Amino acid sequence: MLITNIIKSNLYVIGWNMVRISLIFRVLGIVSILTLIYMSGTLLKLESPLYDNKPKRVIATKGKNPMNDDTDHFVLSKTTTLRIATTKTTTKSLSLAETTTLRTNKNLSVNQQPNTEHTHISSTNESASLKESQPTKTEETAETKLSIHGIQECSVSKIAHKKAQPKIKLDRNKFLLPILTFGPNNQLFGLRESMLVAIKLNRTLVIPQFYPQFNDAGRHGLQVVSPKNRINLEHLAEFMSTVTLEEFHQECNHTIDAIFQTRPIKCNELHKVERDNDIRIFNAQNREEYIKSGSTLKCPPSSIPSYPKNVKSKIVLDIGKLNDIYNSTARCPIFLHPYIALSVDFHAGVISNELFNSSHVDKLLSFDAVKTASDDVIFAAIERATTRPQYVANIAKNFINTSTNNLPFIAIHWRYDEEIIIGTMCRLNPKDKICNKVFVPEQVARAIAQVQQKMNSKENTKLRVPIYIAAPPTLVNFIREVRGNLTELYKHLNSTSNNAIENFVWTLDDLEKFIDERYPAELCPDIRPTPNELISLVEMEVCAMSDAFLWSHFSSWSRVIAHFRPTEVYPHDTCVFDLVAAVAAA
After folding, report:
1. Residue 475 has what DSSP assignment?
2. Most buried of 171, 189, 238, 488 (most Cβ within 10 A)?
3. Predicted structure pTM score
4. What is the C-alpha to C-alpha distance for residues 489 and 446, in angstroms, rounded to an integer?
5. pLDDT (tens digit, 9 = 90+) per residue, 290-335?
6. CATH class held by domain 390-585
């Protein structure tokens, strides 16, 4: 019995030990499997394009993005290198020299955020620089450029005619279609005059076609420019009753029933109006006669009345008598070639400070209010309603912020090229002060430097005020020399200001590079009716945003900007020609 109990006891101990050994082996097996999984995961991470193989430390803190609650917010240390895989598996390296905020979605792709025009990889001190990583020479894709530069919207085709409730409600059963003429800024003058005429006649304005500069080498057969590329249509629609050209076609069955003249009518001009606006003026018979006889055929066709009748030369429209001059019940007339056609040139000189800040301009909230308002108040309101497109303002603002460190800056429009001095202006007016005057770049630089010194504070007379110089492409070499001379003038000055910037002169070269990088043509084709169209509009907006504008006295380009800058607000604005002439005479 004793032996039996001893045997049973030993068997129990042996069995328990075997169970423990089995458990130990199971635990070891599980640990081995987990180890293999962990090592495999580590290897996958090391091979992933989202990780750099170099031994660099990543400090990441997760926070809440106020723009989108579903978006992770990472702060990467200044030693971090992040590699981004594009849609074509291209690998890019982003060197972040300073602490950089990177907003990504949960799979770490660079993602556009709603309602923002800014790049989503940004630094308070230094922009993140993109460079090719060593392992690949693959070209950067257009999609990657789009996401990296944070371009949210660069397609004007998505801009719809806003069905806003306009402040000035006009007769929706009668229309006025302006047919604009001459250069881009002259066309803007014509649109504004047409708006005033439409208001006086109580007619809904048809938003007209615009035209490219006749000698724009980049137009490549382009006949018309969309109004979306010239003005902010939302501002216009909020100001007064408007319809699109397509809506005019529907209302008027692609025909017109009267011509409101400002100058004599030529048949070839009406034929162009037909083509560009998809409307019928000639019937089948008189169109054939026009083709056979060229421009000698009497116009307009007898079936379409014109107002006033028998116009032999350019006329000046008395604003107070517009209803008598264009006394017509026609629903669908065209307003042919308005440009400096009114008895008052509202673009002359500089707007008064009263009209610039006028409270009664803002009170033009109805057609009844317009009836009792003075014409200069109405026109000041029209100017406010015909600003450049919003995308142009955004590009200009981004360029200024990137270039000037938010310092006050000077803008110059230098338009004194050979075409003007020897050609157009001096041929028309040989006694003009610009004729037979030749300046060198060093004189222009010294004149600009004088304005810089006036803008400096007494505490910091050595601060180099940023400068932007706008000029025709034909003067690119001249402007480069001006830039070099300005740099030489200031290289001996060491500013003690923390706001001092190494480069302080920007020109067309810099703006073109900025636009090509931030708003590439392959992604943003329809903000470029022609390359020169976009550059010119952005340059105008940059100049309009400046703290001092030095303008060319005979240029309509300068005139559009300078007119809306009252002296009380912009005391340093002046004619650049006069400044340089004074330097040359000294």
Report:
1. G
2. 189
3. 0.73
4. 8
5. 766 655 566 777 789 999 988 888 999 999 999 999 999 999 999 9
6. alpha beta
